[in-house]
Write a structure and sequence with these properties.
The chain has 228 residues and is of the alpha/beta class. It has 10 helices and 9 strands. The protein starts with a strand and ends with a strand.
């Protein structure tokens, strides 16, 4: 049995690109099992292709960047709500819409599930702020890639996976990335900044196999660990 507080960040590239009932079921099963092992969990999900498809429509309508942000947030919340309904016995089928709500839910013995929060903030940043408030010890991100690379592995065949990386080194890798609604990368610059202010363990694993979350929490050598 465990007494470890953790935030699980499920990338939208995994859980909403497109939204797949089988993927939702697989993740709900893993999360339920971890809760049964007495991990104190909170889950943050992204909107993925589902959100980006709505952002594309918003762009064609000529909507402002802030409007597109709001639409992306609501898209991630729909994904979060679907996952919460799959875990209704642990969540009561609801989602948190603020960090305060998340804290209250955990204090009342509920498993926290949430999506985005405010315009200009990615779900990576949400996960870090949530971890701070809940005093979590580790964040595990399930991503479309199996860790952090020194350059984009989708472009460069010689890209090398980094089993460990210092947060300052990571900030340099992503220094030229700017925020926009629906941003899609392993971890964004603002999240790097927030992470540098609080020394969580942040582990990036391949989300193609939901079981990797369990392995990361159980201490297996898997994915990439971002160190303070």
């Amino acid at each position: 049995m465990r007494d470890l507080s953790a935030v699980i960040r499920i990338g939208g590239s995994i859980i909403a690109s497109p939204i797949d009932p089988g993927v939702l079921y697989a993740y709900s099963s893993v999360i339920r099992r971890l809760a049964g092992m007495e991990y104190r969990l909170a889950v943050v999900v992204g909107g993925g292709e589902f959100a980006r498809s709505l952002i594309s429509i918003a762009e064609k309508l000529g909507l402002a960047e802030e409007d597109k942000d709001e639409i992306a947030i609501e898209a991630s919340r729909i994904v979060a709500l679907l996952l919460s309904k799959c875990l209704k016995d642990l969540t009561k089928g609801v989602i948190a819409r603020s960090i305060d709500e998340a804290k209250a839910m955990q204090d009342n013995g509920l498993l926290v599930v949430m999506g985005g929060l405010t315009p200009g903030m990615t779900t990576d940043s949400v996960a870090i702020l949530l971890a701070r408030r809940l005093k979590a010890e580790v964040i595990v991100k399930a991503s479309k890639v199996d860790g952090i690379y020194d350059k984009d592995p989708n472009i460069y065949r010689d890209a090398k996976k980094l089993s460990k990386i210092k947060i300052e080194e990571l900030k340099k890798i992503f220094a030229d990335v700017r925020y926009k609604a629906g941003i899609n990368q392993v971890i964004d610059p603002e999240a790097c900044r927030l992470l540098s202010e609080t020394p969580f363990r942040f582990i990036v694993v391949s989300g193609l196999t939901p079981e990797n979350i369990v392995k990361a929490l159980e201490g297996y050598d898997i994915g990439s660990v971002i160190e303070p």
